[in-house]
Amino acid sequence: MDSLTHIAIGACAGEWMAGKRLGRKAMLWGALAHSLPDIDFIAGIWNDPAEDLLAHRGFTHSIVFAFIAMYLLVQAHARLHPGAYPHRRSAYGFFGILVFLHLLLDGFNVYGTGWFEPFSHVRVAFNWLFVADPFFSVGPGIALFLLLVLRRQHPWRIRISQAGLIISMVYLGYAGSNKMRIDRDVRSEIRRRNWSDSAYFTTPAPLNTWLWYAVVNRPDGAYISHRSLYDRCDTMSFKFFPRRDTLLYPLFGHEPLQHLIRFSQGYYTVEQQNDSLIFSDLRFGQQQGWNDPAAPFVFYYYLSHPENNELVIQRGRFQGWGLSALQRLWERIGGWGCQ
């Protein structure tokens, strides 16, 4: 989830739970507590890009860290606002909900969240939402704006904060139901093509929950497609991308490569471009792949020239975007262009 959405959700949740008790400070504490797990960005100062991929949404997004954060927040709050929570259990409940809500929401994106660190490196990813979905963010965003404008004693403040959060949660459930429909179509296509031994995943295309990106992993590579809820085609067309594992043999002992393979969860391809060996993580989609099935991937890592690996994940995500690109996205969402 993007940082601005976390701030808006945290502020609304803080107002809902503690606005009458803490006044406007409830919004500030809510935004702070809900955003605290993203403190892992500091690790990027000294980590190389491959290590930083695993550090982000790693330990600071774990259940262990959540309990540590709860304790520290309660202690800090008690020092700054003595008497605000006579019973510490109420304070732990307030901050616990805020921190755990961050962990939960980040689990709905494709990046993956290390809930069980440091005991397990398994990443939780439900793939219900694109990392920045304006339709998910609009409710808390409007609510936060109104809360900042309205006077402290306005009788609607609690209702506005509730409405902002409820709108997002309803949309989240709607996104989950959409994913179930798309997954059903992908599984049907897997059966039709006799790919019963294949792993697959689906995740929303940018900025919406109606057009979905699908990857079917095969032993020799991956088949990629886009599927809209409004597609009129009974079957799906796929573009094949060979994995080319043999290109990695000389580098298997390199630690950055092992980080990348672990991070990608096996959804990757490798290609040679001139003197550069490029590792692409397929989970993050393509640059307008719904318009060009052969489009490059937005996540790619230069194995041969690691000094060029800044902004690895979203590199090229919105390259070439404009009104025409948004129009093509809208048309593809509407079912035009399925094959």
Describe the structure.
By secondary structure, this protein is an alpha+beta fold. The protein folds into two domains: 3-174, no CATH class; 194-333, no CATH class. The chain has helices spanning 3-22, 25-35, 49-55, 63-80, 88-106, 134-149, 157-192, 255-264, 323-333; strands at 199-204, 211-218, 221-228, 239-242, 268-273, 276-281, 300-302. The strands form two sheets. It has a four-stranded antiparallel beta sheet, with helices on one face. Strand 5 (268-273) and strand 6 (276-281) form a beta hairpin. The radius of gyration is 22 Å and the shape is globular. It starts with a helix and ends in a 6-residue tail after the last helix. The mean pLDDT is 91.
Number of strands: 7
Shape estimate? globular
Number of domains: 2
Helix/strand order: HHHHHHHEEEEHEEEH
How much of the sequence is in beta strands? Answer: 5-15%
Number of helices: 9
Average predicted local confidence, pLDDT: 91
Q: Which residues sit in consecutive blocks of at least 5 with pLDDT less than 50?
A: none
Order of the strands making up the biggest sheet: 1-2-3-4
Topology:
Blueprint: H1 3-22, H2 25-35, H3 49-55, H4 63-80, H5 88-106, H6 134-149, H7 157-192, E1 199-204, E2 211-218, E3 221-228, E4 239-242, H8 255-264, E5 268-273, E6 276-281, E7 300-302, H9 323-333
Antiparallel strand pairs: 1-2, 2-3, 3-4, 5-6, 6-7
Task: Characterize this entry briefly.
With 339 residues, the chain is an alpha+beta fold.
What labels would you give this structure?
single chain, 339 residues, alpha+beta, 2 domains, four-stranded antiparallel sheet, three-stranded antiparallel sheet
